[in-house]
């Protein structure tokens, strides 16, 4: 499951530098997460760092449109690391 930044985002700039996969970038009006790069920090950390640094409660949620298993997230992690 990739993560999704909701419209409650205040553009505080806390999440973008914390993403180990560079999946977060500024969109038209709020930060956005590239679902092809988001592994929910699997392979890097125990929990998603963007969620832990976000000052807005429940601003960054699991994207219901992008359901992935933990194995799929870890496989994506391996692929992303191979591209780096």
Automatic annotation (TrEMBL):
A GO term, aspect molecular function: 4 iron, 4 sulfur cluster binding
Pfam families, per database record: Fer4_7
Keyword tRNA-binding: no
GO cellular component terms given for this protein: cytoplasm
UniProt KW Transmembrane keyword: no
InterPro entries hit by this protein: 4Fe4S_Fe-S-bd, 4Fe4S_Fe_S_CS, PSI_iron-sulfur_center, YfhL-like
Location of the 4Fe-4S ferredoxin-type domain: 1-29
Keyword line: 4Fe-4S, Electron transport, Iron, Iron-sulfur, Metal-binding, Repeat, Transport
Source organism superkingdom: Bacteria
Entry-linked NCBIfam families: di_4Fe-4S_YfhL (NF033683)
Descriptive protein name: Putative 4Fe-4S ferredoxin
Species this chain originates from: Vibrio ezurae NBRC 102218
